[in-house]
Design a protein that fits this description.
- The protein is α/β, with parallel strands linked by helices and 253 residues long.
- The protein folds into 2 domains: 165 residues, Rossmann fold (3-Layer(aba) Sandwich), CATH 3.40.50; 80 residues, no CATH class.
- It contains 8 helices and 10 strands.
- α3 runs parallel beside α5 and α5 runs parallel beside α6.
- The radius of gyration is 18 Å and the shape is globular.
- Bound molecules: adenosine-5'-triphosphate.
- The site of adenosine-5'-triphosphate has 13 residues, from α1.
- One of its GO terms (molecular function) is ATP binding.
- This is Dipeptide/oligopeptide/nickel ABC transporter ATP-binding protein.
- InterPro entries: AAA+_ATPase, ABC_transp_ATP-bind, ABC_transporter-like_ATP-bd, ABC_transporter-like_CS, P-loop_NTPase.
Amino acid sequence: MEVMNISRVTKTFSSGRQVLDDVSFSLEKGHCLGIIGESGCGKSTLARCILQLEKIDSGEISLNGQMLQNLSAKKLKPFRKHIQAVFQNPSASLNPKLKIRDSLMDPYLQFGNQKDLRHFNYESNEQYVKQLLHAVELPASLADRYPHELSGGQQQRAAICRAISIEPDVVLLDEPTSSLDVLSQASLLKLLEKLRRQFSLSYVFISHDLAAVASLSQHLLVMKEGRIIDAFPTEELFLLKRHSYTKELVSMY
Ligand SMILES: Nc1ncnc2c1ncn2[C@@H]1O[C@H](COP(=O)(O)OP(=O)(O)OP(=O)(O)O)[C@@H](O)[C@H]1O
């Protein structure tokens, strides 16, 4: 079942620079779609367009069949909760002035509804936060700490925890492992894979790190200068018929 569809999206900044050129793809429920490309190819702009933080010039972005790109801020609000994001820097998701428990409660207090929760259940703040931390393999005692009292890996786990707390339809992962050391990266990728399976999550995983993206994704897109130049199931990454640029990326690993 298709959960999100991006069709012929273009984006030009006011500087006149076209950053996205005719980008199309769809995301199946419960799958991870990887988007690989080098720095500056437009990956983060694409993420911001999907999150409706940037307005696109043309094309369509739909979530569960609902077009998002022309909705007013008011009409968009109910859909915002269905797409959550995790960025490279966990401080983009965790308010430094809030204890972890308050950051984790925030999405539920803003948008949450007990009826929307299929895997977590809300009976009290205490019990809900405990379940959330358990899901991302963090000790319950971290709830009372501030972000700066956590390691980088723990902070990113808390950011992921916040993103999945209201069970969104799509989780956008924009370089989620890039700020971490190699061991923390590996354990975070393992956690993301466990969460996808456990909660039937649908991911768009954007990164310049081919190995990380390939380890999690069922399908890969290769982006260059704002365009998708190659698209294929992950098991076909090493085939001879791949685009020469994809082969170049592969040869770097
Ligand atoms: N607000 C903006 N105004 C003008 N140009 C922008 C703006 N945001 C991004 N760009 C330009 O668009 C291009 C794509 O940027 P983007 O951040 O989407 O790339 P990226 O692939 O995510 O790169 P990185 O991996 O380094 O973050 C870059 O050349 C960037 O300078």
